Amino acid sequence: MAVNENAELEALIRNAIDGGTEPPVATTAGGVADEEADGGLDLSTLGLVARRSLLWLLLLIALGGTAAWLYLRYTKPIYKSISVLKIDQRSEAGVVGLGGQLPAAEAPRASSKLAGEVQLIKSEIIYKQLRDSLGLDVNYYVQGTVLESELYGIAPFHVDYTVKDKEVYNQKISLAFTSPTRYTISCKSVADLSGEYALGQRVSLPGLDLVVLPTRYFSTAAREAQYHFTIQDEGTVNAYLEKNLAVDIMSPDANTIQISFTDYSPGKARRIVNKVDTVYQRAKVLREQETTARTLHYLDQQLDVNYDNLKRAENRYQGFVEKTKTYDVKSEVASSAAKAEALDEQQLKLSQNSDVLNDVARMVRQSHLTRSQDETVEESIPGLGDINDPILSQLLNQLNDLQWEQERLSRSYKPTTEAVQQRDARLTYILGSVDRQLGQARRALQKKIALLEKQQGVLAAKQQDLPSRATEQARLQRPLALAEGTYTMLMGKKVDFNIQKAGTTADFQILFPASEPQSPISPVRLIVYAIGLAGGLFMGLGLVAVRYLMHNTITSTRELERSTTAAVLGVIPTYDKEKMEVSRLVVNDNPKSAISEAIRSIRTNLDFISSAKKKRLISVTSTISGEGKTFVTVNLAGIIAMSGQRVIVLDLDMRKPKVNLAFGAENIKGISTILIDRHSVQECIQRTSIEALQFISAGPTPPNPSELILSPRFDQMLAELYESYDVVIIDTPPVGLVTDGILIMRKADIPIYIVRADYSRKAFVKNMNRLMRTNNLTRMCTVLNDAQSKGAYGYGYGYGYGYGGGYGQGYYEDPAAPPTLAQKIGRLFK
Length: 830
What we know:
InterPro entries: AAA_dom, Bact_polysacc_biosynth/exp, GNVR, P-loop_NTPase, Wzc-like_C. The chain crosses the membrane at residues 53-72, 526-550. Helix content is 50%, strand content 15%. It is α/β, with parallel strands linked by helices. An eight-stranded mixed sheet has the order 14-21-20-15-19-16-18-17, with helices on both faces. Strands 3-2-10-5-6-7 form a six-stranded antiparallel sheet, with no helix packed on it. Helix 5 crosses helix 7 (266-324). It is elongated, with a radius of gyration of 70 Å.
């Protein structure tokens, strides 16, 4: 009934074995899943894998350290030299008392433009001076054991050259000394650039003229080395400087910058940084001097130009003044107006005086005719006092006196009275004098009026010319004022600039001069070794992880117990006393050996499992061949027989019989001949070196072993053997290859499943679990065979604890030789 079912199971097992993966889940009649999901991280397995990978881990770490050492050995170290500069400008104009005179816009700035200084340092100006002063155009090298080294400043020879062909640039030219006075050169890139020459001899080669001169480092030892040199063009040197020279702003507030240079030669890096500091300082001073000179030159040019403009403007204005006889037309206009007003006032006054004189003459005549003396002439005419004529005033006074006197006499005397006549004659005389004086005064006044009118005419003509002269003067004053202002401003600027130049000093300080670096910045030994060791450790841990993930074999009882519900009877250690081609009975030769005690522990556990039965049928099977099924069968049978029980071993692996080989007997007849009734059971029983132990070999290989096992004759044979033996142990075929073993396991009282440490895959244990569920093998037991480590069998069912948890501690009389160092190392790598 189980032939088809077992055939299907056999196919599933074969698929699991061949593919190395878990076979498809088989189900029982109830549809229950065949396997449960695996657990999480198995720390014991991980520990075992880590222990077995320990040597690989150490080797990988050592490999990482070796790789780091090789990297350091074959990598040229890079050195970095650093200097720190402080760049600032401070004004001292205020210290000398001139700070307040400078315009705010022209006052020196407190901080400099550091970005501009960085660009100056990394400019062609600096690079050119570095090329010229440091001799960077020729590089000298010496060939070492592994690497070449640059001989900057310490080369035993010096090359003076003239390049005629640009192809010579950047070519490696080898040089070797053949004698104290001669040398040879060669160049792979330029075929004609080779030959032997004398030191100091000028050599003319295709594209190159050169002279090789010895230096103070030239010695006998130096002549033995191999040298080469390269001639570099400006572009290459500039690229080299641009690549390795770094200028960084450290602190904008403190005006500090850092100059660094990286190179394979520490001395070269230091010298270049110091030279950069020197060249930069010189360039900065020259730049300031050049800026000052350009500024002063510009100011002088502008002063000259404006002086000429000012001179021309002054000449034009001077011609205008000479022509117009005035320096200020506007003030002259005001003066002319004032003069005109004064002339008008004088003219008015003269006119009034003329009217007064006319009134006086009229009144004098009228007073003479009317003889009216009610009032005097002087009293009658207002403004008469304004006429500044003392004679006229005297005459008028005399006239007034005579008139009053005449008026008085006329009241007392008759007109014919002598006194009256004398007074009339005198009055007539006075009137004539007054008349004459008035005529003179009127004529003088007319002359003044005529002169005043003439002056008014001249002034009016002059006033008509003033607007044109004012316009021309304004036109001439504008360029004059502009030229004067510009000239004054430029003179002031020049004075201010000279004051600033005198009061402002460049503050250039080297805070940290470049020193020769003692240790390279790359590669850093500590970091390289750390990376190498960490890389080795990482690869080692990766190996442990990979081996753990790829670990698909059973290695310990803990792992076996976690993988199956079958009882673990015990652990059989590795038998390494001798190398056996086939399984053999060894417990009789070494009854106190570790392997004998391990099998005794299994025997004791079997007694606990089947203590109620006196007759027992034990089947021993495995998944595939090579797991130690036959070895466990014969030695377990020997241990049981040595306890006094009668034991017989049946070899039912009729396709590949091995039991007869284990006992060193023939396989002419056996199980196959019994089942076909060719021989009886007694005829096929063979004896062993142990009296209570006997066996029946498989016999000739039949074409149908499964059918023979299913025949009634097989049950009859077992019944016959029960009569004479206490224990029947059957060595069955591997259940992973054929189904014969499953048929026998169903009949057995105690089916034992052999799992070999580090050989049997975890899928085999799943196969065992599947067989237990499918065939209801509730008493299925398992044994871990060929365990090599203490951790694999450090405890057991009444075995490990009872004997101290290990072997080789002096308790057992195990004659096996201790493993050699090579064997121990081999086990670590296994």
